[in-house]
Amino acid sequence: MELLFFLLFAGLAIAGAVATVWMRYVVHSAFALMGTFLGVAGLYVLLGADFLAITQILIYVGGILVLILFGIMLTPPDRTERNAKRVIGFSASLVAIALFLAVQIGSVVRWAEKSNLEAPKATAAPIGRELLRPDGYLIPFELVSVVLLVALIGSVFIARRRKAVRVDDSSTAAILAERGTLQQKAGA
Amino acid sequence: MLSDYAPLLLLLALAAAFVVGNLVISEVLGRPKPGVGKKTVYECGMPIRGTARARFSVHYYLLALLFILFDVEAAFLLPWAAHAEELGKAGLVAMGGFAVVLVVGLLYVMRKKALEWDR
Amino acid sequence: MSASLALSLWLQSARLQQQTGAALGSTTAPDSNWTLDLLEWVRTSWLSTKLAGLAGMDQAPALPTWAAAAIGAGIAVGIVIGFVSVVAMFSIWLERRVAGRIQSRIGPNRVGPFGLLQSLADGVKLLLKEDIIPSGADRKLFVLAPALVMASALAMFAAVPMADGAGFTDINLGVLFIVGISALATIGVIMAGWSSNNKWALYGAMREAAQVVSYEVPLGISLLVPVIVGGTLELGAASRLQSGWGGSCWFLFQNPFVLPAFVLYFIAALAENKRAPFDLPESESELVAGFHTEYSGIRFSFFFLEEYAAMFLMSAVGTALFLGGWNFPGIDLLKGGWLIAAQLAVFVVKSMFLVLLMIWIRWTLPRMRVDQVMVMGYKYLTPLSLICVVGASVWEVWAAVPFHERPIWMQLFTPVLVFGVCAVLGAMLRKQAIESAAQPTTRSRIAPRAHAAAH
Fold this sequence. Notes:
The complex is a heterotrimer of chains A (188), B (119) and C (455). Chain B is mostly helical and 119 residues long. Chain B contains three helices and no strands. In chain B, helix 2 runs antiparallel to helix 3. Chain C is an all-alpha fold and 455 residues long. The longest helix of chain C is centred in the N-terminal third of the chain and has 38 residues. Chain C starts with a helix and ends with a helix. Chains A and C meet through helix 2 and helix 3 of A and helix 1, helix 6, helix 7 and helix 8 of C.
């Protein structure tokens, strides 16, 4: 029974990933990526990490996919659709590399059977406790807040409004140059 | 764990079947009657100007970015909140530090007027 | 040293929790699976025994457990889908009647008693309509979008049990689950707007996505406050914790920070559902177009049903976490099936009250501008909800006595106190509103900046 669900979710994740790469239009790729995220969330549930699964849906589908879609909408329409032959060649080489790496890793790492591991009943409480224990993950947890702060400041900086002033007469230009807010527009 | 979520999967599957079933019924009952202009895109009855792929302000992107950051913060707040009393004052102080850093970020965003919407 | 401090604190609170648990009874769900009980009842009923007798058997044979579980789950799913449809149709009828009353007219009253079957008739009519897909539209995405939106709305109902032990499934992470799945619906809206090949639909969809995304943060954070007070993310356990007499055991009255959190949650829920005064994505559908402008017939009805189902769901979550869930003073005197039915009725009535509040607000307040909407989420709601979370947790860790150990007068009179304060504030605001409405409306009051610039 679990095998069936595993095949379902893993298949969804892989099919979504393949579709993301192969789809003709960028928007279709973005929505296929949603399939990948949902498949991965299902795999998390199968592994017993329900908190992680729902956080995956909340943040990846609800946030990052929306961000990707906004990014797609912001850019000019894609004049050049993907060439199927080029994509197939590129993807075939990627698959070959992935297989090679999988064989190498699979022969070295010892995998644990899932039945040997015990899954907790609900994972929110243990995660909360571990995150806030001083000899647990407290310091990485506080560092995460700093990383988020850096991302906030960076995003505000990237999206700042750049003042472009076109000046016609020299007196205004002198005043603005004095104030230091004049940006020379090329050819103005 | 699986027993909690398997009914949910069944619910999603049957919801999809519900939608598909309604569409099939509608297809059967509502025979297509082709008419002039039925398939054209609606723009208050006027002929269409411009394509549907227009440009957008960068503020949408910034809003989505801010949402991700604060969403990650909320996702970190959740496992703490469910057991706030157990984790006591030490947990409160640790989580307070986390929240304070992000509130500083929010104040920075507001100060820089990054959220003012320009059309 | 800090580890031992933390450990001692944890042990202390565990002992406290044990005492509270012993006073309240167990906070875990009863183990019986009501669908299996239902199947068993059907199997041993008179009709199936008669049918088995016709086939030459004593009694209807028992199904293998997996089959029984699957059929039981299927029955539960059918009940959920039916419940959602009925509730959505009732909400639509309620909206139209209440809108009529507010606008001094009668709403629909022809079809069925008091017009109750109006929504059903509208649904049947929409089924009979022709299915139009606009030219140039993206067929695959156009068809997928209403399915995604409907699936997310239905999935959220899985996490909200409406009676003790008789919910669909009480997910351990109920609150997080609901906030997460509501994010799925946003993708469906963007998909709908994009695939319509209509620039107004696309604008409406992007605005709606930006609005939902702005208000999901205060929604999630303000929902943390009753989670802190109750100590659980499950919605069924939260409702169970609010049982008792006097109505003051609602989480709303257990902590002074829960009331502002409830107001913030309600405002954020209004914005999430694109309800007025935040209905700019929809108002464009009244004036020009919205994200579902190219959808007709049954596809439109999916979006419409999803909106009212989501309204009811947000109200149900608010009821479970703030207003005491399925509890009512004295409801424990009933037993068995009557108890479940009474709890369900109480829950639905409380949720419907919140839905009525949403409808009332929609037809009373004017619409907000898009830039006001986007800014208000981050500038005002998020900091306020963070303050509520911090305040509630400080109150709980430092000052609070567990609810059932408080003196009786405090338990019984907290709602009176809260209502008294709200009534006094409301009276003051009303007086101020009446006074300001009595002044003549001059240019200086409508457009102060332009007025000041001109003078």
